[in-house]
């Protein structure tokens, strides 16, 4: 015989479950209702059914789980429950995806997709058209599981090289190490990316009042009155410091030499006097190692860069 639970108890349970159950998953709801049913004793299951509208079998299943003393599963469904993965229901899906992104077919005009169009959305559309219904998120997950990642182009393919190229760089490295160990300056110089002067769009973000971005020009056409800014960088290897000179002149040998001269003159005289090259020679700059690329105004064929540097650096 089932003992009836008082009506006020049922109303109290109804209010409690209405507040708590919406925040729980399926298994947690079942166990909470089963715990209340067990605490009420005889007639507890009937009272919980009346308070929640849940089926008697669902609450009985929860009671059985509690009485069995099972450890927490750490998941909503038991292992193997829920919807099967697409690779299980469609075994040919993964092979079809790998055929589209196979590196040996990249750029092949016979391939359905070229390497420039390998986005997850287009891959998903291509697979769906081939009979494999799949979404972009699933394509991204499958690619990650197969060891793929978003990759940018890497500049590794070079043209013809001089047979002594490695020996030349080894010599330069040995010379730089020797001068650094003696306290003589070793610098690396290069022209940086030219920038348009004026209110032009640039990458990056900054903190500003919400809805008030800085207004810039729509088109990046050069302003004839302002021109471009040419940053020229000098990196001191020993001091691990950088120095940048910005000019409006063209990227010429004279501009490069002037930048190095200004860097040298900006160096504190106390630091220069401690350099061995200052104590040994009348021309301290004679023992400064200069590393730069041989392109543009620094190419070795014309003479302005190499002939002007010793005379104007100081």
Description:
Strands 1, 2, 3, 4 and 5 form a 5-stranded mixed sheet that branches. About 6% of the residues have low confidence. A hairpin with a 4-residue loop joins strand 3 and strand 4. With 314 residues, the protein is an alpha+beta fold. Helix 1 packs across helix 3, helix 2 packs across helix 3 and helix 2 packs across helix 4. The chain is elongated and about 105 Å long. The chain is 43% helix and 9% strand.
List keywords for this structure.
single chain; 314 residues; alpha+beta; five-stranded mixed sheet; 5 strands; elongated
In round numbers, the mean pLDDT is 76
The assigned structural class equals: alpha+beta
Apparent shape: elongated
Distance from first to last alpha carbon? 109 Å
E-strand count: 5
- Percent of residues in helical segments? 40-55%
Q: How many DSSP H or I helices?
A: 13
Major sheet, described briefly? 5 strands, mixed
Topology pattern, helix = H, strand = E: HHHHHHHHHEEEEHHHEH
The whole-angstrom Rg is: 37 Å
Percent range for β-strand residues: 5-15%
Oligomer: single chain
Low-confidence stretches: 104-109, 111-116, 281-286
């Amino acid at each position: 015989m089932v003992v009836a639970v008082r009506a006020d108890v049922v109303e109290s349970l109804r209010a409690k479950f209405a507040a708590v159950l919406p925040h729980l998953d399926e298994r947690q709801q079942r166990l909470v209702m089963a715990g209340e049913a067990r605490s009420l004793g005889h007639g507890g299951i009937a009272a919980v059914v009346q308070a929640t509208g849940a089926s008697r079998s669902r609450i009985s299943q929860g009671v059985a789980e509690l009485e069995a003393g099972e450890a927490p599963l750490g998941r909503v469904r038991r292992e193997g429950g829920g919807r099967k993965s697409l690779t299980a229901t469609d075994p040919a899906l993964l092979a079809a995806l790998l055929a589209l992104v196979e590196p040996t077919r990249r750029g092949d005009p016979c391939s359905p997709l070229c390497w420039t169009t390998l986005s997850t959305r287009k891959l998903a559309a291509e697979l769906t058209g081939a009979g494999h219904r799949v979404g972009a998120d699933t394509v991204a997950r499958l690619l990650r599981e197969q060891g793929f990642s978003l990759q940018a182009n890497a500049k590794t393919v070079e043209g013809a090289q001089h047979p002594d190229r490695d020996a030349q760089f080894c010599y330069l490295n040995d010379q730089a190490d020797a001068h650094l160990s003696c306290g003589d300056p070793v610098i690396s110089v290069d022209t940086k990316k030219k920038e348009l002067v004026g209110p032009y769009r640039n990458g990056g973000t900054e903190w500003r009042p919400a809805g008030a971005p800085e207004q810039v020009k729509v088109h990046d056409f050069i302003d004839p009155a302002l021109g471009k800014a040419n940053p020229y960088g000098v990196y001191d290897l020993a001091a691990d410091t950088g120095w940048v000179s910005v000019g409006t002149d063209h990227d010429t040998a004279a501009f490069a030499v002037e930048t190095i001269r200004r860097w040298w003159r900006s160096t504190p005289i106390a630091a220069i006097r401690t350099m061995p090259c200052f104590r040994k020679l009348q021309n301290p700059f004679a023992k400064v190692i200069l590393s730069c690329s041989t392109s543009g105004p620094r190419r070795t064929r014309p003479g302005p860069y190499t002939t002007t540097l010793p005379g104007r650096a100081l």
